[in-house]
Write a structure and sequence with these properties.
The structure is a homodimer of 171-residue chains. Chain A is mainly alpha-helical and 171 residues long. Chain A is built from seven helices and two strands, in the order αααααββαα. Chain A has helices at 10-34, 39-42, 53-72, 86-102, 105-108, 130-155, 162-165; strands spanning 115-120, 124-129. In chain A, strands 1-2 form a two-stranded antiparallel ribbon. In chain A, helix 1 packs antiparallel against helix 3 (53-72), helix 3 (53-72) runs parallel beside helix 4 and helix 3 packs antiparallel against helix 6 (130-155). The first copy, chain A, is globular. The interface between A and B is large, with 44 and 44 residues.
Chain lengths: 171, 171
């Protein structure tokens, strides 16, 4: 009895990205209700030198997609990062979820000691064992960007609670 | 070869709470440098109906402390939640880290199927198996409150980057 690499990655990524999609639905409802420019949300940054909402979502998606691809060895689709609207961002999440669903659990299981080399910033790379990479890099990154999306929406008045962030947490 | 309950909890909590302490050091340096009222940070909320900085830190600490206590069955110390200053918050993190260090790994290992009942909100409780509780509840909560601390500091001009959040990620 112990935790497998697939169960420590796929369902967490899938649940959290579904919750991210749910938060975008609430953002869309907010924009519709307030009749405001959606760019007020999608281009919002919590600080001038932080990434805007749109990029936070793309990076959250890629944290899951590229992380699972690196660990499993299954090639991930490349996306062009051209999304600007809430609908396009939602579609990006859905494409990422479809990729996650396509990765067989047994490609992830047993990879604990596999060496993963991944880019860090623009000019550097880092190598970690897959188990450490998953627990100490990939998932912390996923939660980080997801929570920044939540923070941006809450800061701008979208009604969300932690239950929206934790929606669908498997019992 | 697979992931143990102790390795999926203790080092992640310890690393992330150490990083939280490091972020508080940067917050203290910011306050000293700007000669501003530290309450401008510690009482800051990203939205009027969100919890302030101080509570985000207490909840992050308790997510780790209470989570590890529930899974391991090791009784956790109770704290009075009276912290208001950055130094007191730092001490709370240190006390939490000391508790985590005191929990033997073998009290956590093998608990995957153990039923954990925990409070949700003020009047409800929920029961999950320990493995699901750790992966889908405890850790997402820890990362959530930690990232909100980061977001509050960044929004207020404290110079932090993702490397501060991911500091000490074990290779």
């Amino acid at each position: 009895m112990s935790i497998s690499m697939s169960s420590a990655s796929l369902p967490i990524c899938a649940t959290m990205l579904s919750n991210l999609g749910h938060m975008l639905d609430k953002a869309q409802a907010f924009v519709d209700d307030k009749k405001c420019d959606p760019a007020a949300l999608t281009q919002y940054r919590l600080a001038p030198d932080m990434l805007p909402f749109t990029r936070q979502i793309l990076i959250a998606c890629d944290a899951a997609k590229n992380g699972v691809a690196r660990i499993s060895g299954v090639e991930a689709p490349k996306f062009d990062d051209t999304e600007t609207t809430l609908a396009e961002l939602k579609a990006r999440i859905d494409k990422t979820l479809a990729f996650l669903k396509s990765v067989p659990a047994d490609k992830l299981d047993g990879t604990e000691a596999k060496e993963i080399t991944f880019p860090v910033g623009r000019d550097a790379s880092r190598t970690m064992r897959a188990e450490a990479y998953l627990k100490h890099w990939m998932l912390p990154n996923l939660f980080f960007h997801l929570t920044l999306v939540y923070a941006i929406l809450r800061h701008n008045g979208v009604e969300l609670g932690k239950k929206d962030y934790l929606l669908g947490a498997a019992g």
